[in-house]
Amino acid sequence: MMNYYFLGIGGIGMSALARFFHRRGDHVSGYDRTPSPLTAELEDEGIAIHYEDNPDLLPAEIDLVVYTPAVPADTREFQSLAARGVKMEKRSQVLGEVTHGKKCIAVAGSHGKTTTTTMIAHMLSQAPCGCNAFLGGISKNFNSNLLVNNNSDYVVVEADEYDRSFLQLHPHMAVITATDPDHLDIYGTHEAMMEAYLQFANQTDPNGRLFLKQGIFCTADGEEFAEYGHEHHHDHDHHDHDGHDHDGHDHPHTHTLAHPNIQTYTARGIEADYYAINVRNYNGNLFFDLRTPDGVLFDLELDGAPLVNVENAVVASAVALSCGLDQYQLRHGLKSFSGVRRRFDYRIREKNLIYIDDYAHHPNEIASTIEAVRFLYPGKRVVGIFQPHLYSRTRDFADDFARVLQTLDEVVMLPIYPAREKPILGVTSSMVLRKMDTMSKYLCTPDQALELIPALCPDVVLTLGAGDIDRLVPRLETTLREQLL
Fold this sequence. Notes:
Blueprint (H helix, E strand, L loop, with lengths): L2 E5 L4 H13 L2 E5 L5 H8 L3 E3 L13 E4 L8 H9 L3 E3 H9 L3 E6 L4 H13 L6 E8 L4 E4 L6 E5 L14 E4 L7 H4 L2 H13 L6 E5 L48 E5 L7 E9 L2 E8 L2 E8 L5 H15 L4 H9 L9 E6 L2 E6 L4 H14 L5 E5 L4 H6 L1 H8 L4 E4 L15 H6 L6 E3 L2 H10 L4 E5 L7 H13 L1
Parallel strand pairs: 1-2, 1-4, 2-3, 4-5, 6-9, 6-10, 7-9, 10-11, 11-12, 12-13, 17-21, 18-19, 18-21, 19-20
Antiparallel strand pairs: 7-8, 13-14, 14-15, 16-17
Helix pairs in contact: 5-8, 5-9, 10-12, 14-15
């Protein structure tokens, strides 16, 4: 039996690993800065957690410390453990070790990866092959972010590009859903980020498959899979924001996509290996036909899903078919998929009021969420509450946030959630509001939002953001039910 200690145990990826070791019979404990519904679930499962950064509270016996880059290096417990000489590994390294020797299916991308990962895991879990899974969100089917099946060789994981974490994985099959600029605090440039994605793609088993959303790694004239970028001569002294070498070794910049078995997919177009056609909305459910290299599957159904889930379903279906599922198992898997907590998550679904909570925190994600709502509920009055996540992201995308948020009928902004960052002078939620070309905009605290939202007489309410806005969600749901239903 091993003794594991988790620094930042309340993180979605950290908690899945903690659950895995705990379920395996190891001793698991940890620290997090703040209690949350997820840490409460872990404590209920028998994992000891404390919320005070105090080296005196550390267990005497620790075989391995698992930490997340989101935990600052000046955390007292981090420094104390480092001084003790205890073995310490990042979450990504541990995930790489846990998945080694398994048939790993890894899903990467700047958005869409959590839903796609969860959808694949759900579909495989419903079929005879089964799977294990480490998810980046709480599956509403499993009510967990972990799935363990000792009889299955498959392990489905979300491959996180933050801090180059996904380079610890060597998957049997890989998916890349999107490569929009993000995490530029780590990468510096979009080009450096693309190089990391290219390396991840090239780490995929040549006997497996690599599924790419159409257009990823294309040249400007649309030539598929050409050499990406041009030669750089970087020094390799990359550091995390917390001052640590990102994984202790150099990364060669491989500019050519070398995988022998690439499949493309899209929900909009007919040029790819897998694509959706005839997408339609019937009573809030989506139907589509799936074109595959082996023919067409007609009338696949997604229950209460946003439009973007058609694209996620196309690649999840491609992976599932590659794992040997037949069309009946595929249909059942898609139709019975309940989604992910905080991903287009219906909290209220009544005739006169819809309330959807969504994790969207990048302008493109917000735009697709709003587009999905307009498609499912045409002509309805949509009120959105957005909590920006990170000062740096707000600064980098302020114009884009303003452009997409002003398409709502009413915009309510909460103050920025800092997460791991210190404030940046002049970067505030007000800065984004000022850029919006609409008068229907408000800045308020979460408590004020509870009073404001019902007064705006919404048909559809959206909560958007990746910070602690999730704590507002149950309170807002209760308020809306009491006052508007």
